[in-house]
Amino acid sequence: MSHFLFLNASTREPGHVGNSETLARQAAAALPAGSAQTWLKLAELELPPFVDLRHTAGSYPLPEGDLKTLLDATLAATDLVFVSPVYWFSIPSPAKTYLDHWSAWLRVPGVDFKEKMAGKRLWVIATSGNRERAQPMFDSYRLCAEFLGMQFMPPLWGKGGAPGAVLDDGEALAAAQAYFGEPALA
Fold it and tell me: How many Å apart are CA 157 and CA 176, to the nearest integer?
């Protein structure tokens, strides 16, 4: 059975649904029956700044608290879906912090992070004012996926701006209905 982990990287204040989440929920509603979904809002988790110990300690302890919850959810998923508005042509800071912690998880004894991530699919659902200017962010996610042997799926992009703007993007809404249409990983 497929398990989709939706990682909402928006920094909108609590209680306000942004365009990327609106588009992602449209896509998630069309997932095949039986697909599990877990939704996490990264900005609401207590994610400490990443500290690079690669060339000093060399390894990391098993994470605790919200980082452990995030690691467990990441490993349990067959598909990771970044719900990622474009901020200054790049990955939002909560997602960047999460990705930085992948460097630690690669070095936690017994986790075998790289091996367990290989073969998973990485999706990106994003909104911004301009699709072309979102490309650097998409490239960053693609390179992360490639490094771990994950399959990078074509991004779903919609017109962003003020909350609700994506609802006027008929092309993006139609694409959302078919976005997860490929056979899911077993």
Answer: 9
